[in-house]
Design a protein that fits this description.
The structure is a single chain. Helix content is 5%, strand content 36%. With 144 residues, it is mainly beta. The protein has a single domain, classed as Phosphatidylethanolamine-binding Protein (Alpha-Beta Complex). It has a five-stranded antiparallel beta sheet, with no helix packed on it. A hairpin with a 7-residue loop joins strand 3 and strand 4. The protein is globular, with a radius of gyration of 14 Å. It starts with a strand and ends with a strand.
Amino acid sequence: MIIRSVFNSHEKIPVKYTPDGKDVNPAIDILDVPENTKSFVLIIDDPDAPAGDWVHWIVYNIPSNIRRIEENSVPAQARLGMNDAKMLKYHGPSPPYGVHRYFFKLYALDNFLELAEGAKKQDILKAITGHLIAKTELIGVYGR
């Protein structure tokens, strides 16, 4: 399984996808999906944040037939998780200082998660236990 976007791994995330720009999610392509995948989970986080891992976006129960998440959108049947800015939406890279790494983690599952919208990262990671088929990631960087 492969995840692609408008930047390559370890490249700078374009300003458009940050609060310094339009703060919209970049388009994301999902390739080489494993058989028996029922849904995807996407988590974007920043392990370099001063307070520790900072969650920027969570989208789960993305149907397995989705191969592209369009820019500034969420797939129709998907649910949004609560990010660390206490929002149910994308919150782009905004490091207070230095250059940070942003991990776009994609999980392929053999089920849909029975979690209400607004679930937090730890709830989602617990719920995927025993249902993970594959995981991949794309790392972007951003600094001011």
